[in-house]
Amino acid sequence: MKRFANQRSASRHTLAGAFALISAIAAPTAAMADAGGLSFWLPGLMGSLAAVPGQPGWSWTTMYVHIEVSADGSKNFIKGSSVVAGLQSHADAVATGPTYTFATPVLGGQAAFSVFAVPGDVGVGIDATLTGPRGRTISGTAHDERTTFSDVFYEGTLKWNNGVHNTMIYTTGNIPSSTYDANRLANLSFGFVAVDAGAGYTYLDAKTGNEFSIVGGLTYNFNNPYNDYQNGIDSHIDWAASHFLSKNVLIGVVGYYFQQLTGDSGTGATLGDFKGRVVGIGPQIGFIFPAGEGYQGYLNLKAYKDLAVENRAEGYTAWVTLAISPAAPSETPTKAQSIRK
């Protein structure tokens, strides 16, 4: 069972790396930030085994995220340079990129660094534009859809293991891609720089197959120069619980809590503080499989339904994550004999 635990830990790190840089996907789907009732941090980015260290070397993660959200005409949002009433939005984005896990310990822990690129398609429909660019008043429904690139996202993690207890700290952020257009409703790029940092914990008992992870963090958003809008400081908690049915299959539940702590500001913040909040919960299933000599794969599927929503569009998100990483070294007969001696 200990051998299986090592395998899980390794593939879980790929998973963890995937979820870590999963932040990258947060960006694309979040496209409009708090100004549009969404945020830089996409709730649900972190998941099971988020704090479990993995195997040193290169890994590759690809994540697909689908978001479907809406709000009725009684709710107003900032989109680019406009105040709009009502909102129907969907996004399909793919975050893909490498993670390098260092073999040399850093402060007694394991360091890793990831970079992600995020192409995708986003569509936004509104019931009415109340105030457009340069103060013009416009009415009537509108729809905008585009296929484009989001920003470039990076993340660094540092993880420690002590038996069944695993801890980590992380930081993530974005490098704007210059594809943001304040005159369009649909954007994948944020148009501004944001930095997020936090800490996490994973309990993983290889004997029982039970796992629980929780990650919390804070996001600081810099000013968007295109519309002079600065989102407030956001707080978020992602959690997940799972049980390994076998050494290769897990099932469980996932959830999140997001709360904006400080209000939005700038001349573009015409709706005031506009503090957002949302709670979400849903199911997950994961599969670990061989991926060639010395490598293993991890496939995870999960979905969230939004609850207790305030100043955000409400809906659901679906995630598919595929990660390929170095496999944990198998115990050889020679090693086994030497240990028994």
Brief summary of the model shown:
By secondary structure, the protein is mainly β.
Series of secondary-structure elements, N-terminal to C-terminal: HHEEEEEEEEEEEEEEEH
- CATH hierarchy class name: Mainly Beta
So, CATH architecture?
Beta Barrel
Based on secondary structure, the structural category is mainly beta
Structure, explained:
The structure is a single chain. The chain is built from three helices and 15 strands. 48% of the residues are buried. It is globular. It has a twelve-stranded antiparallel β-barrel with strand order 1-2-3-7-8-9-10-11-12-13-14-15. A hairpin with a 2-residue loop joins strand 1 (57-79) and strand 2. Mean pLDDT is 79; it is low at 1-34 and 331-341. It has 341 residues and is mostly beta strands. The protein has one domain: Beta Barrel (Lipocalin).
Q: How does the SSE layout of this entry go?
A:
Blueprint: H1 2-21, H2 23-30, E1 57-79, E2 82-101, E3 110-116, E4 119-126, E5 128-131, E6 142-149, E7 152-162, E8 165-175, E9 194-205, E10 210-221, E11 234-244, E12 249-260, E13 277-290, E14 295-310, E15 314-326, H3 333-340
Antiparallel strand pairs: 1-2, 1-15, 2-3, 2-4, 2-5, 3-7, 4-6, 7-8, 8-9, 9-10, 10-11, 11-12, 12-13, 13-14, 14-15
